[in-house]
Design a protein that fits this description.
The protein is an alpha/beta fold. The protein contains 10 helices and 5 strands.
């Protein structure tokens, strides 16, 4: 497998250096560029086409939220992972709604950090209960707009519901007696058919369409 091409975005020099030191220890990642703000990140994304962007939230010129939104609109295939010292669920949820794959806290151990980053790059991170609850708060059940014809097969609907419950690809494969490769293939097809970017948006869709129970 080719290493993931990474763009680091943070307005603090020491923070970028720290991230670079962590990544350089692992062959799974190669750093292709660094940016000091969201605008630079957007411009470098066009030039470098990274696989993954590590994006800080609070930056001058253009913050990480706006940069994430702009990049995902133009380059939906680029994975964006928010890096932050805060686990404020509201900020993180806003970033995820704008298309980010997930978030990493800056103060966790480097081994765990890399483990999680690799999972984000491979689309293997399950939904957290906190994010699922935040999705539920977004809309009352009686205000949802349901599609009459959901363009998914029965198996894809099963996978979607299990994703919305917060299950990992491995757990889904065990539950449905499928290989992880097949689960990933279903997940890719579901995202494509529904024109969605990540598990957060899939979970939101599942609740809006009445495919999950409101508890």
């Amino acid at each position: 497998m080719q290493p993931f091409r990474v763009l680091i975005v943070d307005d603090h020099t020491h923070a970028r250096e720290g991230i670079r030191e962590i990544l350089e220890e692992y062959k799974d990642f190669i750093i292709v560029g660094e940016a000091k703000n969201g605008l630079e990140a957007f411009q470098l994304t066009k030039e470098l086409m990274p696989d993954v962007i590590l994006m800080d939230i609070n930056m001058p010129v253009m913050n990480g939220m706006e940069a994430t939104k702009r990049i995902k609109l133009q380059f939906p295939f680029v994975k964006i992972v928010i890096i932050t010292v805060s686990d404020d669920i509201t900020d993180l949820f806003d970033a995820l709604k704008n298309g980010a794959q997930g978030y990493l806290l800056k103060n966790i151990q480097s081994e765990t950090w890399i483990e999680h980053l690799k999972a984000f790059a491979l689309d293997e991170v399950p939904m957290s209960k906190e994010i699922a609850l935040q999705i539920l708060k977004e809309f009352p059940q009686n205000q949802t707009k349901k599609d009459k014809n959901i363009p998914l097969s029965n198996r894809e609907l099963e996978v979607l519901q299990l994703v919305a419950k917060g299950l990992s690809n491995r757990t889904i494969s065990d539950s449905l007696y499928l290989s992880e490769h097949t689960v990933k293939s279903h997940l890719k097809n579901i995202l494509s058919k529904l024109h969605l970017e990540n598990r957060v948006q899939l979970t939101s869709y599942a609740y809006k369409q009445g495919l999950m129970d409101f508890e």
